[in-house]
Amino acid sequence: MYVKPGTLDGNDGTPLLLHRKPTLRAYLAKYWILYALLVPVLAYFVIFHYIPMYGVVIAWKRYSPSLGIVGSPWVGWRHFESFFGSVYFWRILRNTLLINFYSVVFGFPIPIIFALMLNELRNIAFKRTVQTISYLPHFISTVVVVGMVYDFLNPNHGIITMLLSSVFGLEPRVWLNQPGAFRPIYVASEIWQRMGWSAIIYIAALSSIDPELYEAATIDGAGTLRKMWSITLVGILPTIVIMFILRIGQLLNIGVEKVILLYNPLTYETGDVISSFVYRRGFQERPNQSFATAVDLFNQFINLMFLVGANFMSRRLTETSLW
Description:
By secondary structure, this protein is mainly α. It has helices at residues 24-30, 32-50, 68-71, 78-84, 89-107, 109-120, 124-135, 142-152, 159-168, 179-206, 211-219, 224-248, 256-262, 268-271, 274-284, 289-317; strands spanning 2-8, 15-18. It has a two-stranded antiparallel ribbon.
């Protein structure tokens, strides 16, 4: 604290006391506990996300575990050229885009609709019960979820198979061996598993809307649907936009665990995606880690382009963006 020479407060003639701007060292000394809490998070990202990025150089090498990353010879863009010229390139790119497209079209709006429906419930106990039950599938492991899918689609006693047979007259069959059924099965199971958990952020956004807006709308004679459209959706629109941008940034990412557990050679035509192709080429079929790394690097680069493009369009159209 110091006195700026010649500065008075203008009332009783006493000097005006000004505070010196705190330095970074002062902040660290005062809030060191809060900064210490950041250490594990920073360590996690540095150790498991940034340091391993050095390994992407094997995409331009003929990697051999015996020679190591440094000792392996350079091959330039050979792996990328081999992937782009592969007979599987368009198949896995098409499957990846279609599955993600269906997930966005059908899966992205459902958590929003679910959050809006929960927001309209007035019975608090029932609302919390439904909300808790909707979270549970998120905590079920992927292996168990896939096992449940197999049971539900069992041609002899599966509940979904019997439902399709009795309601739509479809004869029982092994649906997981049908190429045309793989995408609907994957998308539907993903929606069921993620719906409740994805709705949390929208429920949190709904809680920040001023209740007086609803009261004013009620006085003006607005009904439930009108208030939902003009107040609720407008209130959570920035959150929806941000989540949509993040989802577009993952347009070529599909959980490899569920795909590998669900698909088989009969459904490669519609179920083989970039992540499963990377897994097979990297660890199963004549393992080639360099080729698999090149394919995965291409995947992440395209995702980055989608993210940047979606953010740019959002900033131009809605004035809401990540940066």
